[in-house]
Amino acid sequence: MFKKISIFGVGLIGGSFALALKKAGAVDRVFGVGRSAAPLARAKELGIIDVASASVGEAVAAADLILVAAPVAQTEAILASIAPHLQQGTVVTDAGSTKSDVVEAARKALGGKIAQFVPGHPIAGREQNGPDAAIVDLYVGKKTVITQLPENSEHDVARVAQAWQQCGAIIHKLSPAEHDRVFAAVSHLPHLLAYALVDDIARKPHADLLFQYAASGFRDFTRIAGSSPEMWRDISLANHVALLAELDAYMAQLAQLRGLLAERNGAGIEAVYANAQRARQNWIRTIEAAEQQSNQGGD
Amino acid sequence: MFKKISIFGVGLIGGSFALALKKAGAVDRVFGVGRSAAPLARAKELGIIDVASASVGEAVAAADLILVAAPVAQTEAILASIAPHLQQGTVVTDAGSTKSDVVEAARKALGGKIAQFVPGHPIAGREQNGPDAAIVDLYVGKKTVITQLPENSEHDVARVAQAWQQCGAIIHKLSPAEHDRVFAAVSHLPHLLAYALVDDIARKPHADLLFQYAASGFRDFTRIAGSSPEMWRDISLANHVALLAELDAYMAQLAQLRGLLAERNGAGIEAVYANAQRARQNWIRTIEAAEQQSNQGGD
Prior knowledge:
6-stranded parallel beta sheet; homodimer
């Protein structure tokens, strides 16, 4: 049971965290903090928070848990504003999509209090944003990755893990660097590739003709190019080292496929396509088996 | 009204064409032709065809319309088998995803009878194949592109168009070269890119770890990598000239984005992402408006 939780950024991610913990009866009072008054007032109206905090000091004082759920580019400034008020016994966590940069920012902002910061990343989202997008079951059955620091106490890590579990999430642990390499490959690179394709087509002189014939395959392939450009600019920059490595590997792969295509090497092309189809089918089967198991567990 | 239609390849595409024309009361008898007996027997059982043809000669004789709906790599051999039996008054069309190569194959196979071949491409599909996958409304509201030849009579083109319209399709016209450039950009390239990404990830030593964290964005982005490797090998080879041109443009785009990322140029990255998001949102709005209009028109 948490007596007081404070959330910096009461949008989709922070708001859904609060709603889930309230539903689980796991928290007494939720304080919200934000740069502008309107979303805070709306979050209070929606029952996401109990108090729209007038100051950072008020929100931080005697909090059991603080969640930073603002855009990643704001993490350092928010943690720096928290630092002077941060007392022993309070655990701070975050929900950022990148972790190495967040840890670096946290070390700068929190200094000697870094042990109190347990970095996290819930793997869940929706296309909408803001407090109105928050839903109670956003995290049910989803993964939350905790990228524990050497300075963290096991007790603090367990409290953060417990909060996410009470939201319905499944806890995974990776190092910050592992986390960033994994998500560069399976999330950040696909976003960059989808944005690149749509931009490439949109700049062609006959773009209108092309879009006219784009069908459902194109729609699914480019769905992630509908995401927030500001958010993905920040993620791309924050994780640029791992993302560049994945992009280079992919460009080498394309160069090889281009060679096969130029020499009309049907067997070579088919080998790549067939390996991809097989790997994707295996992956989908694993997901579906896990979903079925988790549904049965829920009965 | 067509008295006799013959279909070479009674799978998803050919079977759905037959079912739709039968439902519209637009055809008297449908003959099916195929390389193996089992799918033909199944198509007859399902009411897709009336006659499982014993010979190409029987199927072609006195047919009003012949649809070649087999894998594109078989087009030339099928048309060559049709040619000696082809009488005046019969129109031949196809459903291949590429058109320049089909036209080249048709010129070789049909020679002086090329005027009777009106190339087509229905823009519709499902993940399943074979006669059991055929559905009566596969083409409703979908586009069929006709890539008319200079030799075609307007009368023959109109008959092919009419058959597809009776299936519920909307007729578009492009030249074979235009068609292939358009679909290289909006369909063939995205397939190649999705296969390349999944293959790239699957070959990494930590592939299992990566797939464990792949989520819904990755699932949609790679859905088309679940398609038939043989079919997409054939399409890639058949349309390799246009596909190489699109792939080169995309690789240049990636090289430019790589440069922006390496120099941590946030404004440059955001400009690409924002342009893509805007273009995609406009495209989705256009699709949704068209769907709404076509729903209203159907009332």
